[in-house]
Amino acid sequence: LAASHDNHVYFLRTRNGSRAWKMRLTGRVSDMAIYTDSYALVSSLDENRAVLIDLGNGKVTGQMMFNNDETAVQIRTYAGLPIFVLTNKALIAYSLNGCHSK
Predict the structure, then answer these.
(1) Which of the four, 67, 81, 94, 98, has the lowest number of CB atoms within 10 Å?
(2) How far lies 75's CA from each of 9, 16, 27, 34, in Å?
């Protein structure tokens, strides 16, 4: 997974380095992280959201919306834990498995 200054995200094949797909964002990529080897969470500087991209086909499968004056600064993922997004205003933890109950 690679980002460029022309507002594109590229997914390259490990076998030979050829491009599997590319996706254009409205602004430069601020951060990205791979989640469960199947998805990438990508944010751009000009949007108040982060998009969840299916690595198999490059299609957006979901998004995390932020407040109008909020942008993602860092995205971190860890196996078995929620997705952590640090914005310029808050720290958000998001789980694809829902909330845990006591």
Answers:
(1) 98
(2) 15, 28, 17, 9
Q: Provide mean pLDDT across the span 47-55.
A: 92
Which residues 6+ apart lie within 8 Å of 15 measured at CB?
none
Q: Are strands 83-87 and 91-94 parallel, antiparallel or unpaired?
A: antiparallel
Residues 6+ apart with CB under 8 A from 6: none
The pair of structure tokens assigned to 12 is 């390259």
Supply the pTM of this predicted model: 0.83
3-class state of residue 85 by DSSP: strand
Task: Give the list of residues 6+ apart from residue 84 with CB closer than 8 angstroms, or none.
Answer: 75, 76, 77, 78, 91, 92, 93
**Does residue 48 carry a pLDDT above 80?**
yes
How many of the other CB atoms lie within 10 Å of CB of 8?
A: 14
Q: Is 58 helix (H, G, I), strand (E, B) or coil?
A: coil
